[in-house]
Amino acid sequence: MADKQTILGRIAQMTKANINSILDRAEDPEKMLDQMIRDYTNSIAEAQDAVAVTIGNLRLAEADHGEDVSAARAWGAKAAAASAKGDQLRVAGNTVDADRFDTLAKVALGKQIQFEGEARSSEPMIASQTDVVAKLKSGLAKMQDQLGQLRSKRDELVARAKSVAAQAQVHDALGSINVLDPTTEVSRFEEKVRREEARMAGTAEIAASSLDAQFEQLEDVGETLEIEARLAALKGGTPQVIEGTSTPQLGSGI
């Protein structure tokens, strides 16, 4: 009974435990839950063994009680039969055999009383065992329910911890990227491209300026040649006609 009371006490203690309060005081709730799950699992296994033994003893006691009741009933029937036979023999005048059957009836009645007493004496113990079994079964059900809550809490806590870790990782990743920072790789590459574009535009502009200068030099050379030609014509007395006109250009001496 002491072992049963110990199991019942542990069951009562565990089923009254406030899981949330325990977790609030724990430094590492996940480890605490894992340990509580192990403790509950072990305690449930012990409680199941205790319940199995108690139920087994109860069933044996019930079987013995049933046998006592059956035996008492059977001996009562034998006593009634022996008494009836004795009455028949006594009516027939056979008192010797009648007394013998009456004696047998008394023996049967003694056996009946013995088994009835054994049956009665076992009934309080059977009632007590039945109550213990009911409490153990109820406690087991509560412990299994608590174990389910512990496992759910543990899974929920682990999932929340992973979610927080993932959020922190994303937050750190986003914090390391500043799209408005001109010193980022993208901004530096963009600046490099812009400078290269500007350099190419400057090169093209220089090339265009050089080409214009060359054409201007060609125009200057053509004008000089024409002046020299006209001067020579003037000195030679050959009149020069300006293109697009019919008026002769007279040299000096006219």
The biggest sheet, with number of strands, parallel, antiparallel or mixed sense and barrel status, is: 2 strands, antiparallel
Q: Identify the overall geometry.
A: rod-shaped
Number of strands: 2
Q: Estimate percent helicity.
A: over 70%
| Overall pLDDT confidence | 78
Number of domains: 2
Secondary structure category: mainly alpha
Beta-strand content estimate = under 5%
Distance between the termini: 161 Å
H/E element sequence = HHHHHEE
Give the strand order, joined by hyphens, for the main sheet: 1-2
Low-pLDDT parts are 244-254
Q: In DSSP terms, counting alpha (H) and pi (I) runs of 4 or more, how many helices? A: 5
Summarize the structure.
With about 250 residues, the chain is mostly helical.
Describe this structure in words.
This protein has five helices and two strands; from the N terminus they run H-H-H-H-H-E-E. The chain has 254 residues and is an all-alpha fold. The protein has a two-stranded antiparallel ribbon with strand order 1-2. Helix 1 (2-15) runs parallel beside helix 4 (95-175).
